[in-house]
Amino acid sequence: MAHLSPSGKWDARYLGPVPHDSSYYAKCMLGGALACGATHAGITPLDVAKCNMQVDPAKYKGLRSGLSTLVREEGSRGIWKGFGPTFVGYSLQGMFKYGLYELFKDVYMNLAGEEASNKYKPAIWLAGSASAEVFADIALCPLEMTKVKIQTSPSGTFPTSFGAALTEMSKTKIETRYPFGSLVPLWSRQIPYTMAKFFFFEKIVQLFYTHVFTEPKETYSKPTQLGVTFASGYLAGVVCAIVSHPADSLVSLLGKPSNKGKSVGQIASETGIANLATKGLGTRVIMIGTLTGFQWWIYDSFKSSMGLGTTGGK
Predict the structure, then answer these.
(1) How far lies 63's CA from each of 75, 77, 82, 210, in Å?
(2) Of 150, 259, 265, 267, which sees the most CB atoms within 10 A?
(3) What is the distance between the alpha carbons of residues 165 and 148, in angstroms, rounded to a whole number?
(4) CA 197 to CA 191: how far, in whole Å?
């Protein structure tokens, strides 16, 4: 039985096509960095428009008009503001999010034992993804704060180049609450989001392999398996966008100058829950669906090219 460790005991690290040793987790970390860094940085213009729609809805009414306002006022470079911190921040976040998810999943399965692991699979997915995200957000936070500041500051009031922006954030620590001032709102947005993202992804993959592709997973070609990965990632992303949108709106509103010194509760009650839940949601559903689909696809493509197999199954 391949599921047994060399000592003969059941071990979650030996369930997959290859044993989960430190080189396996390192490859997963690299795959996660590639998946998140490239995808988040690639949609910087959508992100700039979304942040500005949340912070100044009177001026930035919709995605298209918001982007054209930005281009008109700041040129085509205006829509790529914050590319640097986005790329670095989300590469680090992806490295921990995916790499540590694989690690925590194995740790929790081994703690639970074979029977409980099979019986309570969803609980393992949720615990593993939540644990990984705690660390992923600590890595992301300073860069996310810098990115939001670059993207939502009126033109000319804050440096847009990566190095200069980081220096400025360090200088204005009191006012910007840098480097970890947004950590709690970030956790409140990202932990439920990541739990939903990994849970729904694993669940949808399981449904595909249980009801649609009913033969053993390894009998299907790589393109088929990666197709299942992309579709599951896309659908999981749509659910996630809806779940996490109110907290995402709050994170953007916290960076708005007129909200300086206000508590999260105060900003929430002034904005109203309907606005928090719906403003910019359409954009975010398309954005997060596509993003999550591609992230899982890049991650699993990398994993399968390394001979590690794709994520999930029956």
Answers:
(1) 16, 17, 18, 39
(2) 150
(3) 11
(4) 10
pLDDT band for position 233 (cuts 50, 70, 90): very high
HSE at residue 223, side-chain half, CA atoms within 13 A, is 0
Task: Let me know: does 284 contact 290? Beta carbons within 8 Å.
Answer: no
Q: For 139-191, how does the pLDDT look when each residue is reduced to its tens digit (9 = 90+)?
A: 999 999 999 899 988 888 999 999 999 999 999 887 778 999 989 989 988 89
> How far is CA 143 from each of CA 45, 49, 257, rounded to the nearest angstrom?
17, 18, 19
- In the chain the domains, ranked by start, together with CATH numbers, are 16-306 (1.50.40.10)
**Which residues fall within 8 angstroms of residue 277, CB to CB, at 6 or more apart?**
245, 246, 249
DSSP E strands, 151-272? none
pLDDT of 285 above 50: yes
- 44 or 258: which leads in pLDDT: 44
- Cβ distance 56 to 48 under 8 Å? no
Please tell me the pTM assigned to this model: 0.85
